[in-house]
Prior knowledge:
It is a single chain. Helix 1 (49-59) links the parallel strand 3 (26-29) and strand 4 (62-66). The strands form four sheets. A six-stranded parallel beta sheet has the order 3-4-7-10-13-16, with helices on one face. It has a five-stranded parallel beta sheet with strand order 5-8-11-14-17, with no helix packed on it. A four-stranded parallel beta sheet has the order 6-9-12-15, covered by helices on one side. Helix content is 6%, strand content 39%. The model has no long low-confidence stretch (mean pLDDT 87). The longest helix has 11 residues, at 49-59. The chain is mainly beta. It starts with a strand and ends with a strand. It has one helix at 49-59; strands at 2-7, 14-19, 26-29, 62-66, 70-73, 77-78, 85-89, 101-104, 110-112, 119-121, 124-127, 132-137, 142-144, 147-149, 157-162, 172-174, 177-179. The chain is built from one helix and 17 strands.
Amino acid sequence: TFTMFTRDAFDGQERGRTLRVDVVDCTWLRPGATGDGRGPAVAQAFGNARNAIGAAQNQGNSVCIAGTGRVTTGTDLHVPNPVSISGGLNTSGIPISGRPTLVFNGASRLVLRAGYSGRLQRMIIAAAEPKTLVDIEDASPRFVGMQFILPDGGTSQAITVVNRLPDDQTVTLSASEITS
C-alpha cells in the first residue's frame, strides 16, 4: 500500500488519498488450453474450470481466465473460499475490455457455500437451458463487472441466496447485469 498526495484544481488544498495495489497470484484457465495453470499461454493454462479451481485452492491462488473464449462445464462448479475468479485478461495476462464466458450445461451451476467471501469479476456466466445459474448459501461473494445470461423461456433464476446463519451475509453486485 502506498499513499499519493495530490492537489485539486478547485481550491489548491492538498488532499491525501490511499491507493491500494494488490498483486494476485494466478492459476490460469484458458479455453482450449492443455497445461497445468502456471501461465496464460495455451500450453500453460488449464482448459478445465474444475481443475483450475482445485489447483488454485491447493496453491492459495485465484483463478485468472485468459482470453475471451467460452469455457463450458456440465457439472456444478463449487468455488471454495478464498478462491476468486477474474476474467478480462488477454492471453498475456494484461487486462482488456473483453470478457470470457463460463457456460453451464444441463443442471450444472456455480455453487458458493458457507463462508465464501471471494470475488468473481469481469466475466460472463451463461446458462445453456432454464435453471438457477448461481446458488449461494450462507456466503458473501462480490460480483464485479459481471454479466449473467439466462435463456428465454422456462423458469430461470440468475442467483438464489439462502441465509441460514444467525449473522448477516451480504451478496454484492457492482457494475453487473442480468439478461436473457
